[in-house]
Amino acid sequence: MTVTMSKILGGREGAIGLAVLALLILVILPLSLDLFRLGLVGKYTTYAFVAVSLVLLWGNGGILSLGQGIFFGLGGYLMAMFLKLEASDPISTKIQTTPGIPDFMDWNQLTALPWFWEPFNSLPFTILAILTIPALFAFIIGFAMFKRRVGGVYFAIITQAIALILSILIVGQQGYTGGVNGITDLKTMLGWDIRNDGAKYMLYYVNALLLIGSILLSRYILSSKFGMLLLAMRDKEERVRFSGYDVSNFKIFIFCVSALISAVGGAMFTLQVGFMSPSFVGIVPSIEMVIFAAVGGRMSLIGAVYGTLLVNFGKTMFSETYPELWLFLMGSLFIAVVMFFPNGLAGVWDKYAKRVGFIRRIMEGKGKADNTSADSNTQGAKA
Amino acid sequence: MFDYSMAEIGNIVVMQGFSGISLFSVLLLMALGLAVIFGQMGVINMAHGEFMALGAYTTVLFSQVAVSYDIVSYYFIFAIVAAFIVAFIVGYLVEYGLIRHLYKRPLDTLLATWGLSLIMQQTFRSIFGAKEVSATLPDWLLGSFQPTPDIDIPINGVFVLVLAAVVTVGVYIFMFRSRWGLRMRATVQNRIMAGAVGINTKKVDRVTFALGCGIAGVAGAAFTTIASTGPTTGSLYIVDSFMVVVFGGAASLLGTIASAFGIAQAQSILQFFMTSSMGKVATLMVIVGILMMRPEGLFASKLRK
Questions:
Q1: Residue B39 belongs to what domain range?
Q2: How far is B6 from chain A (nearest CA, A)?
Q3: Secondary structure letter of residue A365 according to DSSP
């Protein structure tokens, strides 16, 4: 293994963890679940993008954003705009007053496509937009706030307010955004039907691979010198600043990266689920995504994925059978994770499972202490 | 905006301004509680809205009892006191069970209190049902008075305004003119030294937090006079109240009052001329914009960390 490879994989322990996760979402789940349940897993793994982004931003950078729904939603809406335009060709919308524009615009008495919808006729532009617009938005927010040294709880409150603004705006501007129903009835992408079984499997795999890609990217960032600085900033910001580093630039950068990862998740959500609505943008989804990361372990990229899957399956199960209990359970989960398991599932794993003899032998590989780089994460958490 | 004559616009501004004053009063009461908890202790209480709902539900319960004993005219004053006491006690217990373990981790407090707010919301829903309930108001709170034929000022709005003024003065006296307030400010400024001179800092924390929750309870009682209460009522106000506190400058009482007034008036007047959602969006955007330029808020000189 070259140095970079070993850095990305996070040493032997990280590589095994990633391999197990890949085995689970690429092989075991697709083989053992029917398409409906697999679709749910696919949906949950799109949330996992946000959880991974929060591990970068919150766990390692100490910056709690309560507005990750903004970026997830932006990514999702940008994708939905393209798909909606493709679904609203003049032939299938000929019963409308103005054929060729999305149905909700017609319902709201719009007679022409708004200018900012025009470019979304092109898929390359849409993909470019998904990769740049949320990150750019994060840059603006981050630049305005971190340069003035606003951080901590103020940053959390203001990002929350921005999430609120965006969700009210989307609901309020029905004619341009589809309002509270969101953008629905998405059918094809470049003529490829995204609703049939084959497409669903395909999208599931694309999504899973992108998620693993995001984890690898995050690992790479965290294992670099930048990752060390990030941890240092989280623990003693002043010292990093006095050492001559421009703290705010690092913060802006990691915020943009986290926005990018969340946006990819949002775009994949739209593709897999077939709609996008403001209920994935506002305050509640944004803070729920924080709890996914917290349950999985705010320091652990892989733990965040497990945390997301676990909480969401719990939510699905409970809200089907005992909808009333679910909020109690969710509330208790918030409190319990914060009070008793600040490092989440990953913390529990490090503390207990690794004591079991054979797990430790597998993880450490014949007693060789090769876990220095992987453990820098958990070390930081304990410090 | 241009279809009205000058006199009509004048009346609209007065009346919308007054409806803004009801909103201002509730926001101010909410924000006062937060200013005590967040401004003084630095604790983010996301369940603050639910403490308001707790006060509101207490008032509703009182009104139901009052209706069955036919004493509707007097109960409201007692209901306000009861709302304060109930919210105070619950706040005291929450501080003891939850908050005191998390003082060193403000971001985690935020998550834990969010969990608490979910639990409280579901509790309200289980006990009082998902539908909104409202209190039976005494006659003297109903109706309105008309200084000119075109202007209509509701009495409950005036009442809420007076209540907010009384509570504001009360908080001021408590914080700056009483021994308790002195201990509280000493603890905030220097915990170790405060402890060294014999102040029981843990007790101060607990009372401060409980007091903030109690004021939220009073906000709830005031809220019942202008709207009905549902399980998620509190969560509708929580972002606004945080915005008020942050915008005003966290530790400044005067800033809190000024920003509550500004935000409520802007929202209320903009909502008349634009749609209600756009009025809210515009207000929040202006606040966030100003906070980005001036992160320390209106009335504070300290640099934020």
A1: 23-232
A2: 29
A3: T
